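A quick aside before the break. I want you to see a complete sequence-to-structure record at least once, exactly as it would be stored in a machine-readable document. Don't worry about memorizing anything.
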Amino acid sequence: MPAWRFSLVVFLLAGLAVLLIWRVVSLQLLETRFLQNQGDARTIRTQNIPAYRGVITDRNGEPLAVSTPVASIWINPKHMQGLVQDLKPLAKLLEMPAASIQKKIIDNRERGFVYLRRHMSPEQAKAIMALKIKGVNNQQEYKRYYPAAEVAAHLVGFTNIDDRGQEGLELAYDEWLRGSEGSKRVLKDLHGSVIRDIDQQREAESGKELTLSIDMRLQYMAYRELKSMLQSSKAKAGSVVVVDSYTGEVLAMVNQPSYNPNNRNRLNPAHMRNRAMTDVFEPGSTVKPFTVLAALESGKYKPTTLVDTNPGYIRVGKKSLLDPVNYGVIDVTKILTKSSQVGISKMALDIDEQSTWELFGRFGLGRDVGSGFPGERAGQMPSRANWRPIEIVNFAFGYGLSVTPVQLAQAYAVLANGGLMQPISLLRKDQQEQGVRIVNTHQAKQVVAMLKTVTEKGGTGTGAQIATYTVAGKTGTVHKVGSNGYADDKYRAIFAGMAPADNPRLVAVVMIDEPGIEMYHGGEAAAPLFSKVMADALRLLDVTPDKLSELKEAVAAKPELVTGGRKSA
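That is the input. The structure line, written in tokens, reads:
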């Protein structure tokens, strides 16, 4: 072999060796970072860490809304090539047809993320992931649970499947409750399963706790009584609001019909309304105390001022307004006791109508109470430059304006609090606010004293009496408005009152929509419910009874009142 050929072969072999060595060095030293980055890009992923939504509690710390951990199953259709028969084990655990899963894969073949089922238990998700099906993944989430269910549903509201507030205080305070998600880097295998956590990039920040003003002891009791009453009377709907007159805090707010926020299948949207905040109605005779107060402020009237209601009716324009009987000459107190239309009409026509309208506005009628509740209504107050006589008297006894139950409760709380208005609050107040003086203390107490007679013998609200507490309040019965004006056979029965009357701690408003036709008056349908709710509420709050002397006399006459009907030994 010629020397040059040998040299060429040696040169080529040496060059090949150099190339191999260069490639090895290149891979080890120069391209390591590139290949590592490429590998990481296929196995390291950033994963969100869900935030725990803040707990909602009542004023005593009882949970009303809590978040529980759940798992959601999702797929990457790009990684799934299985036929229907290969998906049967997955379909069985998901409790859905295998064909439906196959359709999701086919319809979303270009997508990398599709939910199969949301909010499963962690145990169910663990069984699914044990199948080790390529492209099937799970992620941790939280699901809202409401321990009080339908009892507090209208107030608390609920969240959607993504844990965002949709109704009630869940919606009003969504940002406060929601918190913020965190993130972490995880290492995944070819099937998309997490092998291990690498590091945490951002820590999840839990939402803040929300403490409501309601006392669930009162809430449960009021709800039970309202539901029982509506079932027995076959009424269409109803609301009860209980307010602490000292602080303005709502201690109970219940409505019927209600719904279970934990199971919203076949949910009737009409049952979701917090009627105490969103439904308006003409208050009827429950605003007569404010007309009387306007008369007291005018200086023309005192509780003992006599008014001639003869002959038992009054002609205003083309309309005659009647009392049930001719009360003759009666004082202002008895006008409230008997709820005399004639007496109120004469007083309203005798004073400046603008002063009456202004006083109603001072008490918060015609504007919302500022609670921040979603959908809260302001009601309606007529505003006229020139009032016709019939408009003056209609307004004076509660027609031509509209209120919500919580507005009416706020107005009565002013009377109960000696003329001071405390802002209505759905959240617990840690400190009592100063309050704003609306009316003279003496005149406010005069009206409360007159309202006591409404619940005593001869008044229209004797059904509101409580054995151990004095009660002050007012009945109201109004015709509902139909397509052709006021309906003759559809009513709203209302009672608004306070107890103990001499030093009112609680104010409550009861509104019954379309009570039974036989017992439709406020004194028949609403007052007895007020009595039950208020008696239990005062007892639960350990308020000292103020009718001990009457109770002792009653027990002496009928010992079975305390022995439960059993004869004592």
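Two observations worth writing down. The mean pLDDT is 86. The longest strand covers residues 485-499. We'll return to this after the break.
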